[in-house]
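User: Can you recover a sequence for this backbone? Please restate the input before giving your answer.

Assistant: Of course. Working from this structure:
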């Protein structure tokens, strides 16, 4: 070991460092590839599903509001002598309730179709199991 010159020792250290950096670069590239795949899966399924569920929730709340207004209109129509305006409002709110019901049913169908697409897709089993739960 004492016969090796300082020049070769320094070169040995430099080559060892270059080799370690190359290994770190390979590991980092592998991890970035995995991350890209996970981000793609999130973008393709999770974000779309969250948006769809948010719209379903919003429309269900609108439907509940229309129902409450219709019930209020019926209750108020029984307390006045001329219930005509309340009955017109009731019919309007009843129509909104039915309309939102159809929208929610349609969106639930879309969510089910998206779920089935993910379950039938080429995602790995861990992703499919996460999506089922």
């Amino acid at each position: 070991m004492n016969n090796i010159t300082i020049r070769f020792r320094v070169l040995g250290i430099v080559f060892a460092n270059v080799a370690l950096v190359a290994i770190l670069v390979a590991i980092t590239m592998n991890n970035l590839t995995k991350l890209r795949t996970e981000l793609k899966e999130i973008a393709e399924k999770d974000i779309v599903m969250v948006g769809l569920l948010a719209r379903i929730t919003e429309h269900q709340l609108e439907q509940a509001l229309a129902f409450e207004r219709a019930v209020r209109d019926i209750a108020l129509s029984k307390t006045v002598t001329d219930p005509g305006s309340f009955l017109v409002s009731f019919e309007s709110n009843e129509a909104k309730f039915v309309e939102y019901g159809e929208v929610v049913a349609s969106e639930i169908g879309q969510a089910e179709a998206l779920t089935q697409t993910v379950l039938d897709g080429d995602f790995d089993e861990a992703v499919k199991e996460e999506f089922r739960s």
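That completes the design. The two ends are 62 Å apart (CA to CA).
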